[in-house]
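no rush on this but wanted to send it before i forget. what follows is a protein written twice so to speak, once as letters and once as structure tokens for the fold. mainly i need to know what kind of three dimensional shape the backbone takes. thanks a lot i owe you, the record is right below.
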Amino acid sequence: MKSIQYYGPQNICYEDVMVKPPEEGEVVVKVMSALTCGTDVKTFRRGHPVLIKSIPSGFGHEFSGIVEKVGRNVENVKVGDRVVAANSAPCGECFYCKKEEYNLCENLDLLNGAYAQYITVPARIVKKNMLILPDDLSFDKAAFCEPLANVVHGVERTEIKKGDTVGIIGIGPIGLMFARLAKLKGARVIVAGRNPIKLKMAEEFAHADEIVDLTKYPNPEMIFRDFSEEGKGIDVAVECVGLPEIWERIFSFVRPGGTVHFFGGCKSGSTVTFDTTKMHYGDIKMMSVFHHTPKYFRMALDYIASGEVEVEKLITDTLPLEKVEYAMQQHIEGKALKFLIKPND
């Protein structure tokens, strides 16, 4: 099959590789749609200690397709089924799984290799995190299930409710989806970003109530405060950038009794400083949510299938498999949200 193979930072190749035959419980999926994502861009730029376990490696992890082959004892899907699969599944047996904290599973093994004509899906993911698509749902939309599942997890754990004022800094695809789900929860949403493509989608996709262009208003604290009820500060502040300085900054946006959600993951070893007086005497809840679980993956599919989250609006362009490196460069230059990759066209 044709595949994108990862050899190191800024070193990927379009080449022929063998399709891995399915072992017991495994499934080979013909990839009909794959998506680029921020994590892949970071991996392309500087590597990834978790996603890339050996070199060369498959690359990409957001996809949907058709079951091509099944291994022994696969019961929940069959050849010809239209499916979407997550990039992980919990073991169900470790310390964290026993506490139902499945996203923290000690044996979480992340799947890579969606930038290819076929991908062999491990048995645990097949059993716990592979879903059959509704007949009327396109592969292109279904491929958004994995990134949206992370956001569903974040929104549900934040406990956003009707009438809340929610502020989001960082409106890449994740921030935009967070804003959209907050709106569906009945919140009033203000977002801030600087990329014109993303600012446009904040209106057309997320339907945010207020959009702050940081190129014009680099210090948006007052705008966020004025947006909030009685000017006291927003109920929920969400950081979707993953920079320590933005973590510290967004902390000042929230009102006493509010919630700060650090949703963007910072570089390993990063540290931040907060005003402990404001945090303690302001009764501020600070939280962060990582990854997804089978529950939220299913919820993501339901959101997409219902049409409530029009994920297709986040697609910048459709590209063939051999253009993945071009897609990575476009992301680096800030010229894209997500590219739809069609390996078998």
